[in-house]
């Protein structure tokens, strides 16, 4: 983690909320509200958080698939925040994304083989027989059979579609892959295959990943560092083992405690946090989590905690214990 | 409707003992037992096209599966061949006038009779296929191509390009087809290329609007985003990802237009603006003066009418089938 | 959105300006003018008479001047005088507009109310005999030139009832109103209903395979609800587009129908006016049609947003 | 029984006339609807089909007389006649009308197509309110025929030509009510008509229906009492007869000659051989058989007998090259002429045949092209929009043109001077033969009918031999009306003169 | 299986195939299972093994063509759904049996407001005013923890995050309080806190209404936490069925065992480096060209000659069924 491959500074993305016949703007969704992080070369940054907190928006902003409202994105040191479409195109080879919704991100009228091979064709990396061979290789890598290359997306199961997306992202051998829940639809054995594949690729080629997932176990396996988001902000970011061993933000703690354990004898399905998830349109004042936090103090309602270092590069945004969060 | 639903609800209270109900009606999605037992797997697979991979087998299979479409294709092919080999098929010179045999009924000598000039109707229809198909295919292709380009560009790029293109097509649309045709023929004289252009121009906004509408919707889909993330150029995205997904309405539209352009030429002829005499076009054969003979010599209008209808049917049936074949979800 | 509307309105004006230029100069490009035609009708040409007449009508002036005269008049609501009838152009045009508007409206209504349901049925029953039958019937609408359809209707009515519906501007009875407006409208509508039906079918087929249709089924929604509430609403965009276009081109279709049914509407009038090179009539009428078309397009665009919430027009 | 009063005559009109001023028009589309509004000085007797000098009767003039060595034509006018707006009719109105026609007055017609008719008139003089005289340069007996045409109504002085185009005022049996372009023309009975008991009808309504099939259907369905006169084509006539067997139909020549205008001022038709060859190649019977199922007439410039007064005898006609009965022999001769001019089986002559884009023009042109094929001429049809037709002809921008010439009155003066005299505007070919022109004057001054006929035949023959404007055929057309319509006579040698309709009544 | 009256769902020998141009897909091949009132049955298995198709077969929503239910029976509360006609089936769907689909993005109608979609589900089966239904819809959205449910109800699917859409789907499926709920990966798009809430919600409702639940999931943690019984599918067939305890304690099929081994766990004792996970080698066979006999054999370490013959389901006591010739040896070898 010597040099930063991706550097995101104070990223914000606001969506207008419109209503009425004239569709006047009545509010703003603070989908991403000031997020900063870096991903080093060969590093995996896990990004977890509740659903709707803006993970996908971060992911898509990084690739400039949505135009950030403000902030800066630097890839390999170069600021790509304001590059034109054309100027951006060469950079696309070095960053790829696996979308959260595999089916919708596959062109229904193209065969799986064409979809996976297309990036190679577009960038003129292969054609004809070679293209086919390389596509077949990619299929095998993600655990699909080459004979499935001529099938259409709707003929695949959910998990298979997700693997097609992964294969497409891998095709260009990018330096950064943004994985937006790439294994959520996979069964554990294939999930294991895919994660192993990602890990192997990283070891061989020094890929970097921004890895978004809900499954903390998976994140735990693949990440070097983990960031936890809540309502458009990063509330905690730390090296993986540090975070899992010593979570400081109450939300992180709730997350970890909510992970279902694969042991039927140890049932504990009582949710640890309750209450309504606040809306990104009217985020609660102060600490956004205070509405659901068991340890909320008066201060939390008014004062917004900054992301502060609590030692060892473990940053947390919580007012408890002088801003170092709740100790274990 | 809702009443009947509630009615059947009451049959299924929690824990009611099983009461299998016989159902004589045929069902849509599921299959009843009797049917299940007799499923002919081989037949079903054959229907799904399993044995028809590659080459002629596949074509034959598709023809079997889309009988109407195949019929359409056969008709269209027949017409195209007729147009090409008109000189060999026609039994008489379509232009030679012979007062002696004017208005002859259909007979062995004149299969479709003769017109008031004594010209052989069959030969005129055969030769007329050249002009009518040229008008139909030519103007559809011309208008369609430009329309697709305009529609894709404006729908995909949106923004000011869209606004400008839409305004231009507004302008084209605001000039009614026949007005345009009138002006064109008045300015340039009625000739085949002019008729084709006059008919093609109003097609442009039609096609471009359909394509644009589809493009607008498609643009928002994640797979387009996916294509962008690969670093694909906008042109390629438009052509490879957007266009194929607008193909279905396009094919339907184009084939429908193919038919209607032939009819438009007929309407132009009716207004005296079509392909000039003496060259036969189906539309001209059906035009005003023929109307006067509709009663006394019905063959003068029946046969060109059938020719037009056949061509329209052929094009459209084939178009429908093509749409179905190109729909990946239909391929089983 | 408001800004968008304002901009759209402005652009509509730009379009109209464009149309005015195009029609003005197109008409001038066409060889021959009213004077030539008058003399053609009279069968002789006298250069002095001709020059006099051209001067009288002001068509000897430079084009730009003529354009300015026309367009400034148009904006003031002064449409000038018809060259042929020498009556105020507005007076000639106005009474014909409601006739054609009624015809066009009815034709569209007919086309949509037949075409859309049939398209839905044919898509839902894809591959069945019903589908084939509906398609073939609708094709017959596309394959019959509308003047033949019109003549057929007239001939049949004479043969069967010994009666023929001739246009009556002030229908006395309901039956006459039907004969005056509905029958010709149906003849026009039949053709465009065929197109509407086919587009509906194709668009529906696309939508019917979507997952959310399955969801609707899973809720227990009836076929009708699935087909019309869920599928049709998703499939309607291209249909609206086509209907919008048909609306614009209806004028063309109406020319022939107005001729066959002898209806004194604007469509046929426009053709006559072009034949006579009656510039004031043609120019102003085309402008009025253009206003309708441009507004129709605008409405179609707005309908997109109504039917598809994903489409939003922002500034 | 006798004539009955009342009823509105419903008729369709074939197209929308540009305006309502008969003097400014040159198509019977104007005469039919507006002739009932006016009166002439004299008129052809409306119930005799064949117009001739003998059938001319007084109208606004009570009597007339040739005086001053046949160089003055004096009319005694009918007293007490009122214009439709109530103003009295006087000799001043007559003078105004003819001064304007001669281009001598302040007020001008927009167009004045029949100016040449009055070339021999020096001036018009009046004597009191009820006498008017036409003073001629030389005797012209046929002037009276011209004045009896439906084309020669008397206009009021006090109405401007412009108003006459939109709202004509006449003295005739019917008053103008309204004219909606492309829609309808309505006339109503003139209660103050000078002729006691006329008209019988309460009014006339014309619905404009340009589409012939629709119009005929409407007639068959009983929507109309009468078709537009002379507008029913032969095939449609059969239709009418089968569908409405009671309808009364007549087929008459309409004195419209279908002819070829030849551009003899530039190659190839400056070569008389080629012109002659073309004339020889014509198979006129074939034209007639195709266009009219045999019901047409072959003739020269003048409408053939018996309907026509001036047509030359058959024997004489057949001596003209191309009129002989043996078409093949004619064509052999034509081929020789062509070969003489340098053409043959290996060297065809390419020719453009221009015509207007209307079936009655186009169809014969198509036949012509086919016939010319037999003598090494490859014709190509060049259809021209009406607007461009005369400018194109005037520019001499054509080789052959197919044209229709309608003759308002069956009189040589009208057709010779109009179509063949050197300066005439309607002499499209600019055919100019001073010798023949002298003959025109000779026949024009001849008062002895029999002598004049002979002169006319010779001229006609010469004109055909010069192939200036070869006549192909004279058309015939049908008119139909319901059996209860009485008192309609369709003129058999003109289609411009028979529409006063004051004697028409309905037996309903 | 003593008391049949307790059964909500009984599936016998269900067979669903796809007739495709590349051959016959036996997506569901002879699968039988039962669900009791209030019971949760989990279905796990390799991706593409036919879980969703099984679920769709229960709803009779397999796309036809190319799919077809070709055999077996599905009785819901004693009525064989496969013999109902379409109208009767409609009355059942969404009412007595409802389903949460796997793809929340595409399973919601893009041009209908979320609220309306729920309202529709409710009003199809319950007589009530539009207002009441709307209130229920908002209430359901609140139940599935969607913030500002009243506002969200007026929004369109594309305005919601993936997780919200999934929750909206759940709200819709639960709105009519069905006797049997099929949840096809209902929580894949949710973070674990919400997942816990939702699962708790589903289980609550289940308890309250006695709803039988068929839970299709990849998350064995979820299985362990919620299900009473589990069936494991492989290549269209049921290869193992057991109570959840028995399965986790003693998987009898090598594939199940492989699955168990692949489960990643949250490292309580944090390994600082990335850890490779155990995986089952090889790929899932094509459903068209299934190997002779046991479909798992080619990937199985324990495969023997006999595996070319299809192993029948064998009862190992307590309703623990497994289809493996070497079930007895699995524990020792692994
Ligand atoms: N195009 C859009 N317009 C308006 N709001 C949007 C848009 N896209 C996303 N949002 C809103 O932005 C917020 C963040 O959405 P995002 O998809 O980034 O969440 P997420 O963290 O990926 O959630 P999940 O884990 O459920 O996928 C949500 O409240 C969502 O409703
Ligand atoms: N419409 C279809 N046409 C052809 N084959 C299909 C179709 N739908 C599904 N299949 C096939 O049926 C098999 C089972 O699919 P299914 O969706 O049930 O898998 P699944 O177990 O739900 O997988 P996942 O966990 O990945 O969702 C797959 O191999 C798939 O390829
Ligand atoms: Mg997301
Ligand atoms: Mg699935």
Automatic annotation (TrEMBL), chain A:
Sorted UniProt keywords: ATP-binding, Nucleotide-binding, Transport
Pfam families: ABC_tran, oligo_HPY
Entry protein name: Peptide ABC transporter ATP-binding protein
Organism annotation: Bradyrhizobium diazoefficiens (strain JCM 10833 / BCRC 13528 / IAM 13628 / NBRC 14792 / USDA 110)
Record carries keyword ATP-binding: yes
Membrane-spanning residues: none
Record-stated family: Belongs to the ABC transporter superfamily.
Record-linked PANTHER family: D,D-DIPEPTIDE TRANSPORT ATP-BINDING PROTEIN DDPF-RELATED, TRANSPORT ATP-BINDING PROTEIN
One GO MF term attached to the UniProt entry: transmembrane transporter activity
Source organism phylogeny: Bacteria, Pseudomonadati, Pseudomonadota, Alphaproteobacteria, Hyphomicrobiales
Domain ABC transporter: 6-256
Function, as annotated: Involved in beta-(1-->2)glucan export. Transmembrane domains (TMD) form a pore in the inner membrane and the ATP-binding domain (NBD) is responsible for energy generation.
GO cellular component, one term: plasma membrane
Top-level lineage group: Bacteria
Principal location class: membrane
Membrane topology: Peripheral membrane protein
TrEMBL record, chain B:
UniProt entry tagged with the keyword Cell membrane: yes
Region of interest called Disordered, as start-end residue ranges on this chain: 1-33
SUPFAM superfamilies, per database record: MetI-like
Main location: membrane
Domain of life: Bacteria
Membrane topology, record value: Multi-pass membrane protein
Location(s) in or outside the cell: Cell membrane
Domain ABC transmembrane type-1: from-to ranges: 129-319
GO CC terms: plasma membrane
Transmembrane segments: 67-90, 133-157, 177-204, 250-276, 296-319
An example molecular function term from Gene Ontology annotations: transmembrane transporter activity
Gene3D superfamilies: MetI-like
Annotated GO biological process: peptide transport; protein transport
Amino acid composition bias (Polar residues), ranges on this chain: 1-11
Keywords in alphabetical order: Cell membrane, Membrane, Peptide transport, Protein transport, Transmembrane, Transmembrane helix, Transport
InterPro entries in the cross-refs: BP-dependent_transpt_permease (IPR050366), MetI-like (IPR000515), MetI-like_sf (IPR035906), OppC_N (IPR025966)
Xref: PROSITE patterns: ABC_TM1
Family membership: Belongs to the binding-protein-dependent transport system permease family.
Protein name, UniProt field: Peptide ABC transporter permease protein
Automatic annotation (TrEMBL), chain C:
Superkingdom: Bacteria
Record-linked Gene3D superfamilies: MetI-like
Any one GO molecular-function label of the UniProt entry: dipeptide transmembrane transporter activity
UniProt entry keywords in alphabetical sequence: Cell membrane, Membrane, Transmembrane, Transmembrane helix, Transport
Compartment(s): Cell membrane
Bilayer disposition of the protein: Multi-pass membrane protein
Pfam family, one: BPD_transp_1
Entry's transmembrane regions: 9-30, 103-124, 136-162, 174-194, 235-256, 285-307
Span of domain ABC transmembrane type-1: 97-304
One cellular-component annotation, GO: plasma membrane
PANTHER family: DIPEPTIDE TRANSPORT SYSTEM PERMEASE PROTEIN DPPB-RELATED
Family from the record: Belongs to the binding-protein-dependent transport system permease family.
Protein name (database record): Putative peptide ABC transporter permease protein
Organism: Bradyrhizobium diazoefficiens SEMIA 5080
Automatic annotation (TrEMBL), chain E:
UniProt record, GO biological process: peptide transport
Boundaries of every ABC transporter domain copy: 9-260
Database matches in InterPro entries: AAA+_ATPase (IPR003593), ABC_Ni/Peptide_Import (IPR050388), ABC_transporter-like_ATP-bd (IPR003439), ABC_transporter-like_CS (IPR017871), Oligopep_ABC_C (IPR013563), P-loop_NTPase (IPR027417)
GO molecular function, one term: ATP hydrolysis activity
PROSITE patterns named among the record's database cross-references: ABC_TRANSPORTER_1, ABC_TRANSPORTER_2
Mode of membrane association: Peripheral membrane protein
Entry-linked Pfam families: ABC_tran, oligo_HPY
SUPFAM superfamilies hit by this protein: P-loop containing nucleoside triphosphate hydrolases
Record-linked NCBIfam families: oligo_HPY
Family: Belongs to the ABC transporter superfamily.
Official protein name in the record: Peptide ABC transporter ATP-binding protein
């Amino acid at each position: 983690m010597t040099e930063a491959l991706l550097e995101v500074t104070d990223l914000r993305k606001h969506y207008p909320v419109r209503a009425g016949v004239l569709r006047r703007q009545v509010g703003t969704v603070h989908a991403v509200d000031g997020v900063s992080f870096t991903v080093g070369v060969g590093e995996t940054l896990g990004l977890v958080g509740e659903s709707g907190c803006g993970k996908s928006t971060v992911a898509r902003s990084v690739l400039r698939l949505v135009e950030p409202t403000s902030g800066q994105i630097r890839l390999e040191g170069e600021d790509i925040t304001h590059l034109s479409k054309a100027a951006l195109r060469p950079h696309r080879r070095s960053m790829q994304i696996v979308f959260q919704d595999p089916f919708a991100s596959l062109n229904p009228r193209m065969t799986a083989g064409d979809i996976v091979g297309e990036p190679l064709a577009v960038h003129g990396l292969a054609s004809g027989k070679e293209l086919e061979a390389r596509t077949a290789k990619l299929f095998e890598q993600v655990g699909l059979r080459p004979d499935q290359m001529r099938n259409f997306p709707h003929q695949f199961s959910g998990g298979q579609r997700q693997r097609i997306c992964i294969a497409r992202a891998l095709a260009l051998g990018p330096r950064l892959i943004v994985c937006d829940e790439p294994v959520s639809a996979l069964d554990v054995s294939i999930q294991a295959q895919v994660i192993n594949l990602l890990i192997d690729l990283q070891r061989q080629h020094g890929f970097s990943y921004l890895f978004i997932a809900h499954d903390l176990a998976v994140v735990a396996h693949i990440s070097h560092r983990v960031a936890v988001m809540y309502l458009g902000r990063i509330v905690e970011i730390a090296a993986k083992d540090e975070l899992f061993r010593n979570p400081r933000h109450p939300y992180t703690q709730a997350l970890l405690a909510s992970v279902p354990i694969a042991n039927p004898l140890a049932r504990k399905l009582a949710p640890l946090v309750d209450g309504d998830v606040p809306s990104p349109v009217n985020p609660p004042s102060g600490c956004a989590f205070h509405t659901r936090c068991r340890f909320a103090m008066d201060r939390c309602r008014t004062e917004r905690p900054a992301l502060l270092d609590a030692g060892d590069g473990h940053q947390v945004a919580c007012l408890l214990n002088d801003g170092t969060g709740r100790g274990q | 409707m809702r009443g009947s639903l509630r009615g059947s609800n009451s049959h299924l209270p929690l824990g009611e003992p099983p009461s299998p109900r016989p159902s004589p009606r045929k069902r849509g999605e599921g299959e009843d037992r009797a049917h299940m037992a007799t499923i002919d797997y081989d037949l079903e697979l054959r229907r799904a096209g399993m044995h028809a991979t590659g080459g002629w087998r596949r074509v034959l299979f598709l023809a079997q599966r889309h009988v109407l479409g195949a019929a359409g294709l056969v008709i269209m092919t027949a017409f195209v061949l007729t147009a090409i080999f008109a000189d060999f098929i026609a039994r008489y010179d379509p232009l030679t006038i012979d007062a002696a045999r004017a208005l002859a009924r259909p007979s062995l000598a004149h299969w479709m009779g003769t017109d008031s000039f004594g010209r052989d109707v069959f030969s005129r229809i055969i030769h007329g296929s050249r002009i009518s198909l040229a008008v139909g295919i030519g103007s559809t292709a011309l208008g369609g191509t430009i329309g697709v380009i305009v529609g894709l560009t404006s729908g995909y790029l949106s923004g000011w390009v869209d606004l400008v293109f839409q305004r231009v097509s507004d302008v084209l649309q605001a000039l009614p087809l026949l007005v345009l045709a009138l002006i064109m023929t008045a300015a340039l004289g009625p000739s085949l290329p002019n008729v084709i252009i006059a008919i093609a121009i109003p097609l442009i906004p039609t096609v471009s609007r359909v394509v644009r509408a589809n493009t607008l919707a498609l643009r928002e889909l994640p797979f387009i985003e996916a294509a962008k993330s690969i670093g694909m150029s906008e042109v390629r995205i438009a052509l490879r990802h957007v266009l194929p997904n607008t193909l279905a309405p396009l094919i339907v539209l184009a084939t429908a237009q193919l038919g209607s352009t032939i009819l438009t030429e007929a309407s132009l002829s009716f207004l005296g603006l079509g392909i000039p005499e003496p060259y036969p076009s189906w539309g001209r054969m059906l035009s005003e003066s023929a109307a006067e003979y509709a009663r006394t010599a019905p063959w003068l209008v029946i046969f060109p009418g059938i020719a037009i209808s056949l061509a329209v049917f052929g094009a459209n049936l084939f178009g429908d089938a093509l749409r179905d074949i190109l729909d990946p979800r239909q391929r089983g | 959105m408001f800004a968008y509307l304002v901009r759209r309105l402005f652009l509509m004006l730009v379009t109209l300006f464009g149309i005015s230029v195009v029609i003005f100069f197109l008409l001038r490009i066409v060889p021959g003018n009213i004077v030539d035609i008058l003399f053609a009708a009279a069968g002789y040409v006298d250069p002095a008479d001709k020059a006099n007449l051209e001067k009288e009508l002001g068509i000897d002036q430079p084009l730009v001047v003529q354009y300015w005269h026309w367009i400034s008049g148009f904006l003031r609501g002064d449409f000038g005088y018809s060259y042929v009838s020498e009556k105020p152009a507005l007076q000639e045009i106005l009474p014909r507009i409601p006739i054609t508007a009624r015809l066009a409206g009815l034709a569209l209504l007919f086309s949509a109310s037949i075409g859309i349901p049939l398209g839905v049925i044919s898509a839902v029953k894809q591959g069945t005999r019903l589908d084939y039958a509906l398609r073939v019937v609708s094709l017959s609408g596309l394959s019959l030139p509308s003047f033949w359809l019109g003549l057929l209707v007239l001939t049949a009515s004479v043969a069967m009832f010994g009666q023929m519906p001739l246009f009556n501007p002030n229908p006395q009875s309901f039956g006459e109103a039907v004969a005056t407006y509905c029958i010709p409208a149906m003849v026009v509508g039949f053709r465009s209903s065929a197109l509407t039906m086919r587009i509906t079918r194709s668009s529906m087929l696309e939508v019917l395979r979507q997952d959310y249709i399955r969801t609707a089924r899973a809720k227990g929604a009836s076929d009708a609800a699935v087909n019309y509430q869920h599928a049709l609403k998703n499939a309607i965009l291209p249909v609206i587009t086509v209907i919008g276009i048909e609306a614009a081109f209806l004028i063309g279709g109406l020319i022939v129908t107005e001729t066959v049914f002898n209806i004194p509407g604007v469509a046929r009038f426009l053709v006559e006016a072009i034949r006579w090179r009656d510039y004031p009539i043609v120019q102003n009428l085309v402008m009025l049609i253009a206003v309708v078309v441009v507004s129709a397009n605008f409405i179609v665009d707005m309908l997109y947003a109504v039917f598809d919430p994903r489409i939003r027009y922002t500034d | 029984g006798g004539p009955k009063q009342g009823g509105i005559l419903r008729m369709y009109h074939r197209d929308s006339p540009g305006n309502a001023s008969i003097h400014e028009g040159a198509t019977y589309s104007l005469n039919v609807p507006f002739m009932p509004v006016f009166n002439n000085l004299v008129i052809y007797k409306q119930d005799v089909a064949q117009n001739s000098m003998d059938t001319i009767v007084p109208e606004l003039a009570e009597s007339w007389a040739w005086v001053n060595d046949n160089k003055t034509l004096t009319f005694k006018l009918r007293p007490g006649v009122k214009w439709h707006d109530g103003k009295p009719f006087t000799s001043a109105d007559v003078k105004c009308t003819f001064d304007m026609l001669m281009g001598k007055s302040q007020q001008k017609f927009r167009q004045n197509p029949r100016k040449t008719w009055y070339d021999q008139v020096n001036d018009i003089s009046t004597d009191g309110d009820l006498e008017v005289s036409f003073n001629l340069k030389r005797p012209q007996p046929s002037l009276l025929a011209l004045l009896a045409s439906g084309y020669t109504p008397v206009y009021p002085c006090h109405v401007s030509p412009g108003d006459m185009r939109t709202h004509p005022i006449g003295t005739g049996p019917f008053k103008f009510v309204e004219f909606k372009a492309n829609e309808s023309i309505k006339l109503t009975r003139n209660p103050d008509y000078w002729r006691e008991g006329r008209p019988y009808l309460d009014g006339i309504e014309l619905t404009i229906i340009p589409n012939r099939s629709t119009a005929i259907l409407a007639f068959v369905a009983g929507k109309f009492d009468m078709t537009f006169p002379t507008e029913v084509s032969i095939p449609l006539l059969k239709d009418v007869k089968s569908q409405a067997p009671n309808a009364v139909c007549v087929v008459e020549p309409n004195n419209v000659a279908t002819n070829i205008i030849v551009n003899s001022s530039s190659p190839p038709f400056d070569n008389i051989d080629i012109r002659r060859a073309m004339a020889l190649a014509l198979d006129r019977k074939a034209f007639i058989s195709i266009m009219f199922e045999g019901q047409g007439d072959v003739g020269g410039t003048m409408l053939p007998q018996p309907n026509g007064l001036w047509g030359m005898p058959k024997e004489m006609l057949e001596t003209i090259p191309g009129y002989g009965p043996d078409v093949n022999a004619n064509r052999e001769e034509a081929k020789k002429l062509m070969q003489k001019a340098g053409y043959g089986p290996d060297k065809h002559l390419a020719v453009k045949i221009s015509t207007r884009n209307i079936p009655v023009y186009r169809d014969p042109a198509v036949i012509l092209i086919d016939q010319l094929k037999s003598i090494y001429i490859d014709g190509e049809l060049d259809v021209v929009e009406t607007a461009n037709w005369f400018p194109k002809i005037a520019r001499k921008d054509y080789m052959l043109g197919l044209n229709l010439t309608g003759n308002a009155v069956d009189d040589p003066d009208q057709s010779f001077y109009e179509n063949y005299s050197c300066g005439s505007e309607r002499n499209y070919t600019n055919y100019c033969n001073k010798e023949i022109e002298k003959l025109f004057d000779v026949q024009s001054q001849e008062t002895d009918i029999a002598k004049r006929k002979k002169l006319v035949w010779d001229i006609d023959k010469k004109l055909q031999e010069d192939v200036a404007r070869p006549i192909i055929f004279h058309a015939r057309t049908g008119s139909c009306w319901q059996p209860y319509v009485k008192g309609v006579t369709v003129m058999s040698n003109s289609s411009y003169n028979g529409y006063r309709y004051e004697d028409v009544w309905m037996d309903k | 299986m003593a008391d049949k009256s307790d059964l909500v769902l009984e599936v016998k020998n269900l067979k669903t195939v796809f007739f495709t141009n590349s051959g016959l897909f036996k997506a569901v091949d002879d699968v039988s299972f039962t669900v009791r009132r209030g019971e949760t049955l989990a279905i796990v298995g390799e991706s593409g093994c036919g879980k969703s198709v099984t679920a769709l077969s229960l709803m009779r929503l397999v796309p036809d063509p190319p799919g077809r239910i070709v055999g077996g029976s599905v009785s819901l509360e004693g009525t064989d759904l496969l013999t109902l006609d379409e109208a009767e089936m409609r009355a059942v769907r969404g009412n007595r049996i409802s389903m949460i689909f796997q793809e929340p993005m595409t399973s919601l109608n893009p041009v209908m407001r979320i609220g309306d979609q729920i309202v529709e589900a409710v009003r199809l089966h319950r007589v009530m005013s539009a207002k009441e239904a709307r209130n229920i819809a908002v209430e359901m959205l609140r139940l599935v923890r969607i913030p500002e449910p009243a506002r969200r109800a007026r929004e369109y699917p594309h305005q919601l995050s993936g997780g919200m859409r999934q929750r909206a789907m759940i709200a819709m499926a639960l709105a009519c309080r069905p006797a049997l709920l099929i949840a096809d990966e209902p929580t894949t798009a949710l973070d674990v806190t919400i997942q816990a809430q939702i699962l708790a919600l589903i289980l609550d409702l289940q308890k309250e209404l006695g709803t039988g639940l068929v839970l299709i999931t990849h998350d064995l943690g979820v299985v362990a936490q919620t299900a009473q019984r589990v069936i494991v599918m492989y290549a269209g067939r049921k290869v193992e069925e057991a109570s959840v305890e028995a399965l986790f304690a003693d998987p009898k099929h090598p594939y199940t065992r492989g699955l168990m081994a692949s489960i990643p766990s949250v490292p309580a004792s944090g390994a600082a480096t990335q850890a490779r996970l155990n995986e089952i080698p090889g790929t899932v066979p094509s459903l068209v060209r299934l190997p002779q006999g046991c479909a798992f054999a080619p990937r199985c370490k324990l495969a023997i000659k006999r595996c070319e013959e299809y192993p029948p389901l064998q009862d190992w006591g307590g309703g623990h069924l497994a289809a493996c010739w070497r079930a007895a040896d699995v524990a020792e070898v692994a």
